[in-house]
Design a protein that fits this description.
heterodimer; A: 207 residues; mainly alpha; Four Helix Bundle (Hemerythrin (Met), subunit A); 6 helices; B: 119 residues; 2 domains; 3 helices; 0% strand
Chain lengths: 207, 119
């Protein structure tokens, strides 16, 4: 019933983690400010895409290039990876032990990499149909927006690998815990960006 | 890292908190699945509804799903110690002004030029 006031976005470690919990507040707020500025960047790239969606210059358009089934699978993969990262956050907060924490993180990593695999496969089938970035303004804008998100996911995967290494090397010290918590924010944030991508790019393009 | 001895009360309280937070993630995934599946199904089977109403449905579902993610995955609530929610709202305001402004100006420009008109 008595829900405590949340100190920062994401899962709060709580008083049981002592100084790690106290150190989290500033760090997480700073990272949250970065995420919001990243959201502005994405927003402007979305605006670029929307304004150039009709500029196909006689080249292939959304109907010829997009694959709804693939976009749906990618959505499910990212959603599942958000859930597994949530489980990793719970394992960290409630001290379920390193093996379970690393297990959830590795599962998240696998889902993220399968997502990237599907996305690369999408791009290569678009290339095969003549949908290369230099073909039209529409395709330039598409390959500005969607791979930008993919690049973020790839960065998240590398960060995830580094954190698993950090856990194995240094154990769950303050820096490692805060790293996991910040990556959790980043990962869930990317899932929110993906909602905008599948809605604005894929669903709207295929209506 | 001295582990303090928990009293039995604290342990049960913590276990309840864990259950609640676990359920928060499960609810988040369930709602997100529903909010994803409906617009995808509508676009896939395209029943006899106009493109405009389909676009409105997609937009509304996307916004609601974003709120679900913020609430259940990022744990943003109204009882935040710092201005996290304000920061989201301010960023959303900036995004709305800049994105809507860009789209409006460029669409208006397109209709005034020979370029193909925006819908």
């Amino acid at each position: 019933m008595s829900q405590q006031v949340l100190k920062h976005p994401g899962l709060n470690l709580g008083p049981a983690h002592g100084k790690d919990d106290r150190a989290a507040e500033n760090m997480m707020f700073g990272f949250w400010v970065f995420l919001m500025s990243d959201a502005i960047l994405f927003g402007m790239v979305f605006a670029t895409y929307v304004t150039s969606v009709h500029a196909t210059a006689g080249g292939p358009g959304p109907h010829a290039l997009y694959d709804l089934k693939s976009a749906f699978i990618e959505t499910l993969l990212l959603l599942a990876s958000s859930f597994t990262f949530g489980m990793a956050s719970l394992a960290l907060k409630y001290k379920h032990g390193k093996p379970r924490l690393i297990g959830w993180m590795v599962l998240t990593l696998v889902l993220g990499m399968v997502f990237l695999g599907f996305e690369l496969h999408d791009f290569s089938s678009m290339f095969a149909k003549g949908g290369v970035p230099s073909r039209s303004g529409f395709l330039s804008a598409f390959f500005d927006l969607v791979p930008l998100h993919g690049l973020h996911v790839a960065a998240g995967c590398i960060w995830l690998i580094c954190l698993v290494g950090q856990i194995l090397r240094y154990g769950l010290d303050t820096a490692t815990k805060l790293g996991i918590m910040r990556l959790a924010l980043f990962w869930h944030f990317l899932d929110i960006i993906w909602i905008a991508i599948f809605s604005v790019v894929y669903l709207t393009g295929l209506t | 890292m001295s582990e303090q001895a928990h009293t039995a009360d604290e342990t049960t309280e913590r276990r309840q908190e864990e259950r609640r937070e676990f359920h928060s993630y499960v609810w988040g995934v369930g709602l997100a699945l529903l909010l994803t599946a409906v617009p995808f199904a509508l676009v896939h089977w395209t029943p006899g509804i106009s493109r405009l109403s389909l676009l409105i449905v997609i937009g509304v579902f996307a916004l609601v799903q974003m709120l679900v993610h913020f609430r259940f995955f990022l744990h943003i609530g109204f009882k935040q110690k710092r201005e996290d929610l304000h920061l989201i709202l301010f960023s959303a305001l900036l995004l709305t002004i800049m994105v809507a402004g860009t789209v409006w100006i460029m669409a208006s420009l397109a209709t005034r030029m020979v370029l193909p008109a925006q819908p």
